[in-house]
Design brief:
The complex is a heterotrimer of chains A (387), B (97) and C (316). With 387 residues, chain A is an alpha/beta fold. Chain A contains twelve helices and 16 strands. Chain A is globular, with a radius of gyration of 21 Å. Chain B has 97 residues and is of the alpha+beta class. Chain B has a two-stranded antiparallel sheet with strand order 1-4. In chain B, strands 2-3 form a two-stranded antiparallel ribbon. Chain B is elongated and about 55 Å long. Chain B starts with 35 loop residues before the first strand and ends with a strand. Chain C has one domain: Thiamin diphosphate (ThDP)-binding fold, Pyr/PP domains (Rossmann fold, 3-Layer(aba) Sandwich), CATH 3.40.50. Helix content of chain C is 37%, strand content 13%. Chain C is built from eleven helices and eight strands. Chain C has an eight-stranded mixed beta sheet with strand order 2-1-3-4-6-5-7-8, sandwiched between helices. In chain C, helix 7 links the parallel strand 5 (192-196) and strand 6. The chains are: A alpha/beta (387), B alpha+beta (97), C alpha/beta (316). Chains in contact: A-B, A-C, B-C. At the A-C interface, helix 3 and strand 9 of A face strand 1, strand 2, helix 3 and helix 5 of C. Strand 9 (207-208) of chain A pairs parallel with strand 2 of chain C, so a sheet runs across the interface.
Chain lengths: 387, 97, 316
């Protein structure tokens, strides 16, 4: 039975990763991820786990070192944010193409310019297409759980893909929350040692990272897409195993008071908690509001999402990132395209909110719902901007 | 070596495009590139082995008598061996068109 | 004739016979870089893992589904050969310590061109050297970004013509001299730094051996003659390497724990640089005054090196 602790979430993330018996971590500090890096190095330097901790000279090198270490058969972890993730951008599609099970914690932070160290999703959204599995944690418990689950998911022979765990920077990383920290014995039961598909060693030489001519590249890309789409099945299976051992359920899409809702708020990440308080507030005045929380962002859980919002007329989507000059926020755009061919489609009201650490309070969610009800067109709009 | 089917379907591509057969690049015979080929005059050859050492293709081999020859499947006809041979035992002759 | 010290045997027939880079690769005829690679892989032996940067050697060897590499090999991207090698080295260390893999030494070698070493790859190399990983970094220097079409790099010599430093009417070729990479690596305080050239194969192999024995990061800068990019005849590759060494353009030396030593001694009166320059089309636009400038630059750099050879003291 796990231990009840009260701890800063970033520290808990590092502790959870340490429980996974990683072999190599290569991390470069960036606010607000730094506490994860610092605490992980405390753990290694105190000899609590036997791992190599590489204090690399940039995020580009941290993901590259992780790729090399993973290719050599090690269980690896890294963490970053914002500019660091952007610097890694070049290498992310390579790691997934090479099917290396790297696990990365992303402390979500706004992307420059201008420089802003506070929380939103503009750092992870440009990485949508890179072929990584992407999870969003809502609270400290999910951070611990998803960090551990990620290794199991990434290393599963039916998956073999890298995983990103998104943790809202400051809003979640720097919160002190009551959580249950699993025991080493429980984690060992859930997460066996890594058995690599292929590894770099002279006992069995092979070549990794070979290039593709045009006559084979499309086949390689299809294989990668099929692998990522197919990973959803395995993720759900692993979550069922998790529930058996730890007693906590995970679904790709979770709902709160959604069954009879006329209007559903859609969130990803820690804002879901505030939104659920707002739902309760609004329900007091008999408004039929509910909440849908997306936990699995890539591969996008199409069927599960459709089931979760079935029967609802309006979706009020909270987007914490924007594709400038395009059709709106990434989450709403994704949802709209899911429903394009369906006969029964909800109205999707796309709200750009909470950028760069702008606080989103219960009142803001209430205002969002009111605005969604009144809105006549389907264009995206910024909410909470001083006109 | 069993020839792989090419081009492969998307199901047949190895995960990560890993190649599990080290050195299978030798299935491609670069000998078709050359315009000249090296010929050894064993009367002049001192069996030093420098031609073998300087061949970028690694296609010069020692025979059972200690003399050297080029594997014409791979020789690109660069001429380094002939140029470096101290006793000038190697000449480059034109390939017929 | 080379006058050399500490060579045990100068007999090619006693060199490692196994080939670790198969024939059938797509290098140009007379490629000096692939010759260098072939030799250094022999020096490494079979217990090695190669981390390769994007470049000529990667492209000519690893078009899926073929590979010319007999070693375990990984290519990730252009600028991170040293970072990938760091990760491999750390993984092998951790896995050996935890008993997850065989407990025997496996050398980690990073192989990159001059671009992937001195320009885009410099940060990763500096970081890896500073962290003290036990690995060998081979810079295969053909003095330009050859793979992408002969564009200039920081290793392109003064006045050489490349596609981004062409010999034009107003500006004649590369305006700066060769950035001194071995010097930069010595400044990192690593135990072994050397320059090598496949025209001196036994010297090269001896240096790979020393790099393997070094107690920390080792760096070997290998001059790779490129007939395609240097516009030289494909059969003169080895000769050009020799001319580069004998004229002092590319002296062969090693630095063990800060102590400089020439491994190929040159006479007081070196070969004039003009012989070397005239053999290459990339210097064809040089007039007598330009050659004089190049000679002065070579003389200056060579004097600096000799000063270090005579005054440096081992820091161990």
């Amino acid at each position: 039975m796990g231990k009840r602790i009260g701890m800063e979430v970033a520290i808990a993330a590092a502790e959870a990763v340490a429980l996974c018996r990683i072999d190599v971590a290569a991390v470069y500090p960036i606010t607000p991820q730094s506490h994860i890096a610092e605490h992980l190095s405390d753990i290694v330097h105190d000899g609590r786990i036997d791992a190599e901790f590489l204090t690399v000279e940039s995020e580009h090198s941290s993901i590259s070192a992780c790729a090399g270490a993973s290719a050599a058969g090690a269980r690896v972890y890294t963490a970053t944010s914002s500019q660091g993730l952007m610097l890694m951008h070049e290498i992310l599609p390579i790691v997934s193409a090479m099917r290396l099970p790297v696990v990365m914690g992303v402390a979500n932070r706004a992307v420059s310019g201008p420089l802003n160290i506070w929380n939103d999703h503009t750092d992870v959204m440009p990485q949508r297409d890179c072929g990584w599995i992407q999870l969003f944690a809502e609270n400290g418990q999910e951070v611990i759980d998803m960090s551990i689950q990620s290794f199991r998911i990434a290393e599963h022979p039916d998956v073999m893909l890298p995983v990103m765990v998104n943790i809202d920077g400051f809003q979640l990383t720097h919160m002190i929350e009551p959580m249950i920290m699993p025991t080493q014995e429980e984690v060992d039961r859930f997460l066996p040692p890594r058995v690599p598909f292929a590894t770099l060693h002279p006992d069995n030489p092979l070549s990794m990272g070979c290039f593709n001519m045009p006559d084979i590249f499309m086949e390689t890309m299809k294989a990668k897409d099929v692998a990522l789409q197919g990973a959803k099945k395995t993720i759900i299976k692993i979550w069922k195993e998790w529930a058996k051992i730890f007693g906590r359920d995970y679904q790709p899409v979770e709902t709160y008071k959604a069954k009879d809702a006329d209007i559903l708020i859609v969130t990803m990440g820690s804002m879901g908690e505030t939104a659920s308080v707002a739902v309760d507030e609004m329900r007091k005045s008999r408004k039929k509001v509910g909440l849908v929380k997306i936990k699995l962002w890539r591969p996008f859980p199409v069927e599960e999402f459709k089931v979760a919002v079935r029967g609802c007329k309006t979706l009020a989507v909270m987007d914490r990132a924007l594709s400038f000059g395009g059709a709106g926020g990434p989450v709403a755009t994704e949802i709209k395209s899911l429903f394009y061919h369906e006969k029964e489609r909800p109205r999707v009201a796309d709200f750009i909110m909470g950028l760069g650490g702008r606080d989103v309070r219960v009142e803001d969610f209430i205002a969002m719902v009111e605005r969604a009800e009144k809105k006549e067109d389907d264009t995206y709009e910024f909410l909470g901007v001083r006109e | 070596m069993k020839q792989r089917k090419w081009p492969e379907t998307w199901r047949e591509v190895t995960p990560g495009c890993i190649v599990f057969t080290p050195g299978n690049a030798s299935e491609y015979k670069t000998g078709s590139w050359r315009a000249q080929r090296p010929v050894w005059d064993n009367k002049k050859c001192i069996k030093c082995g420098m031609c073998y050492l300087f061949c970028p293709e690694a296609c010069i081999h020692e025979d059972e008598n200690g003399y050297f020859y080029a594997d014409l499947d791979y020789c690109k006809g660069c001429g380094i061996c002939a140029h470096e041979c101290w006793p000038q035992a190697i000449s480059m002759i034109e390939e017929e068109v | 004739m080379n006058t050399v010290q500490n060579f045990e045997i100068f007999v090619p027939k006693l060199v490692e016979k196994r080939e670790f880079f198969s024939s059938g690769h797509r290098a140009c005829q007379g490629c000096g870089e692939v010759l260098a690679l072939r030799l250094l892989l022999k020096g490494l032996g079979e217990d090695a893992i190669i981390a390769n940067a994007t470049g000529c050697m990667e492209i000519i060897s690893s078009a899926y589904p073929a590979t010319a590499w007999m070693h375990p090999y990984i290519h990730v991207a252009f600028e991170n050969a040293a970072a990938v090698a760091s990760g491999v080295e750390a993984a092998i260390k951790a896995l050996r310590r935890k008993g997850k893999i065989a407990d025997r030494e496996v050398f980690v070698a990073a192989v990159a061109g001059d671009g992937g070493t001195a320009d885009i790859g410099l940060q990763a190399l500096s970081g890896a050297a500073e962290r003290g990983h036990k690995f060998i970094f081979f810079c295969l220097d053909n003095e330009a970004y050859m793979n992408t079409g002969i564009q200039r790099s920081s290793q392109t010599p003064f006045m050489a013509a490349t596609t981004t430093s062409p010999a034009g009417k107003a500006i004649k070729g590369q305006r700066t001299g060769k950035k001194n990479m071995p010097e930069i690596m010595v400044a990192h305080g690593i135990p072994y730094v050397a320059t090598a050239c496949p025209s001196y194969p036994i010297d090269l192999l001896e240096k790979v051996k020393k790099a393997k024995e070094a107690d920390g990061p080792a760096y070997i800068h290998v001059l790779s003659v490129c007939p395609t990019g240097w516009r030289s005849p494909s059969n003169e590759t080895v000769k050009l390497g020799r001319l580069a060494v004998e004229s002092g353009v590319f002296p062969l030396y090693e630095v063990e724990n800060g102590k400089y030593r020439l491994t190929v001694e040159l006479p007081e009166k070196r070969r004039p640089v003009s012989e070397y320059l005239k053999a290459q089309g990339r210097f064809r636009h040089l007039g007598p005054e330009d050659i004089g400038k190049v000679q002065a630059l070579v003389d200056r750099e060579y004097r600096k090196l000799i000063h270090k050879v005579t005054t440096s003291v081992s820091w161990s």
